[in-house]
Amino acid sequence: MNYFRYQDQALFCEEVPVEKIAREAGTPFYLYSHRTLLQHFKVFDTAFAEIPHIVCFAVKANSNTAILRLFVREGAGVDLVSGGELYRALRAGTDPGKIVYSGVGKRVDEIDYALKTGILMFNVESTQELETINERAGALGVRAGIALRVNPDVDPQTHPHISTGLRENKFGIDVEGALEAYRRVAGLKHLDIKGVSCHIGSQVTKVNPFIDALERLKGLIGRLREEGIAIRYLDLGGGLGITYDQETPPDPAQYARAIIDASRDLGCTLIFEPGRVIVGNAASWSRRSSIPRPTKRRNSSSSMRG
Length: 306
Description:
Helix content: 25-40%
Shape: globular
Distance between the termini: 8 Å
Largest sheet: 8 strands, parallel, barrel
Structural class: alpha/beta
Number of helices: 10
Strand order of the largest sheet: 5-6-7-8-9-11-12-13
CATH class: Alpha Beta
Number of strands: 14
CATH superfamily: Alanine racemase
Radius of gyration: 20 Å
Number of domains: 1
């Protein structure tokens, strides 16, 4: 749910008329509902309360420092994809031990910044990136925590342009070649293998693709442990969808129940990277010299309940 509503044909955010905000603040502006943001984060985080986990908000979904600070105060970590996002996360007070650095094309100066900050781990996209991080960690006299982003080859059943978990998608290391890639990492002395990572896509509205990916990663983790490679974290990424039109995505409690049941006895801290499911319907906006006009109710609904 969210805290935008209509009363006598006037749009309210929580208990405040949006028209009043527009008169006092001027236009254009973006308006966020503190209560909506806080509730959505708490609902998601609480759903996993029975297992070790870290909710790392995906900064790409909304990089407003005040919003990041709100989640950090509730114990959130962050998932980021650039040095600029790392800067914002640190300004918001994020514990470096709860920061995961994802994304392709990490620059050397951004890698150095993250290494000096002491982030939890890099989600590494390729063997070439492994070599670069190992080299920079050696130059700085530190060890870099890493997880390999593994492509589990599952269909997320979402729009093909935002699917990232199939073999033909360009992201991550193929699940079949991941074991050999981890063996290679084990020989790089400036890297500390901490976990396995995946991200199957965005706006995923069914639970099954997440569970299919988890089952494939469980097999990989078992094989790694047999070879003496300790895996402490499993990063399942983000991608849980919301309702824009006729979609009926699972709410966080349903999603969490399925993940928890499928990961019993895995012995890993689970990391999640929610983005739109937290902030997707928590804001309104105004054009210059106009009062915010409502969108159709179906476009402002969400699968988040609590």
